[in-house]
Amino acid sequence: MWNETERVEIGVHSAALFVDKLTADYISGLQRAASGHGFRFGTPVIDLTGVSPGTVFALGAEAPGAPWLSGGYPGSTAYVQETLSQVPREHLRHAWILTAPGTSDALPASILTSLGLNFPGDYEVTGQACQGTPCAEHFLWKPKTE
User: Fold this and answer.
1) CB pairs under 8 A, 24+ apart, for 117-124?
2) Core-most of 13, 66, 73, 90, by most CB within 10 Å?
């Protein structure tokens, strides 16, 4: 707790949160990547990292289907695929995507394909941020149609 000295503003209401430097850099990096590319509060974000349950809310986004799409557990992929299949496809097509390629807990992008989304073809990377030590790169993708 002594290292949680960095102030970041999170969510729709810009609530203050004190975190460590690495977490502050991560949140700020993704916030810049989002705001610099037309992100609006309440936009859906599908988090396929499997490990960052607060990121969607820190961005002021909406998590379609469930508050956290956890990965790295037996059945995670099937659970997330079923959860997202209950969300209207039109809503999913407007969602931004957060990925962590090559990490052990990341959910596969094939989930998106199974839902009729053309990922990564219909998306562009808006930025990236380093989460944790060692660094796990998280990439924020925006639908090209937005």
Assistant:
1) 117/92, 117/93, 123/97
2) 66
